[in-house]
Design brief:
alpha+beta; Porin; 7 helices; elongated; Porin_dom_sf; signal; Phosphate-selective porin O and P; Porin_O/P; coiled coil
Length: 498
Amino acid sequence: MSRISGGSPGILFTLALLAGANVPALAQDADPVVSDESDQARTIADLQRQIDELKAMVEVLQAQRVTAAPASPVTTPSTADTPIIAQDFGAPSLPEAASVPAPQTAPQVAMASPPKPAAWYEKLRLRGYTQLRLNEIVSGDASAPAGVSRLRTIGDGDVRDNNNFSFRRVRLILQGDLNEYVSLYFQPDFAVAVSNQSAGERRGGVAQLRDAYADVFPTGDKSFRVRLGQSKVPFGWENLQSSSNRLALDRTDGINSALPGERDIGIVAYYTPAPVQRVWDRLLADGQKLFGNYGAIGAGVFNGQGINRTETNDGLMAVGMATWPFELDGLGLDGQVLEVGGAIMRNRVSPEVRSGGVSPVSFADNRVGLHAILYPQPFGLQGEWNWGTGPEFDPATGRIEERPLRGGYVQAMARVKESPIGSFYPFARWQYYRGGFKAATNAPRLETEELELGIEVLVNSALELTATYGWASRKEADERRFGRAEGQIVRVQAQWNY
């Protein structure tokens, strides 16, 4: 019946054909000579009844079709339905060619709306950490007359007499992937101190740029990246390790004197093969303190004058570093990893001079370094050493000259993963350095020996507490002071991560 679906005029035309098809049959049944008017009347009445019934059924089918149309497009039903209608009303089946085709409606295709691009706040995330520190010189040369060294450190200007609490770092980090090829990293520090203010007062809480770079992934594969901007220079394992992740409170003089502030402006490329990344991922999942993913191989060029300092010559500092973790399961040390590597730096630098400005002469600033780290599982060792040539003030001549340098450290540590106070790391570190310090005025000579015992407690993921006790022998970073100061220092730090 659903084939009779073209509308009322078409239906009535079809019904007329059906009715006409029955007339000859009725005429054959009647007497050819005598026509019975009553029989004709009955035939007409019967045809009219059939037409009325067909009209009623067509209306029902049309109502059903209108109801079903929004749900799905109209389709031509099977011809098997047509004989059923004909049998009900005594009409013969129409041949397939005589069937009235159903009008075809355009299929309704659901158009998927394009994905909404992520907003900037969905691509970037904000995090950071703050370090509140207490330094106390408990014995020794906290002060001294003019021309004599006092007990000071190049890593923390608040190791001095008449000091209590201070902010060592107040960092905010904005980072994220802009797309699969570019990511950004931005980090200022709000705990920088500035000297030489009015009346000679030292001011703290100054904001300073630390990192501002973009990582470019040329192939979309993050195993290889090119870093553009101000970032850490790949020389020295502990230089690259974040201060929020390092056990000791400050970096050692021997390694950090190569790159005070650890950063410079330039371009550097890093590559990390998949096997190396797999080992580092396992160590990170275990909670080990890594140096950060600066690549198993890194090489770059930088200005060479130092963090937030204006470039003063046309030369570039070239740096290269390689590090590789070896799993020691084959030696029966299941889970242990030994990482070894080295770095090289070639540069020329112009130190600041006492008379003002920078030296008109640039000096060779070249180093070679080695490092090794046995991750604590539960005991570990860590050490670095470097040799080279750098600028150093000569008191005999009163001039800056190129002099040899050497120094490094050895650190032993252990890890207790679970305890009533949280996981903790006891450690001991000895450091040594002989050489110039290019970041200070006139590049004074440093002579450092220090033994430090400490413990870091990870109360939870948001709070870390560190306490150290050290025996130090140091020459102050001032070419106008002589000799070495000695003393003992207690230091306590609270770090909260957010």
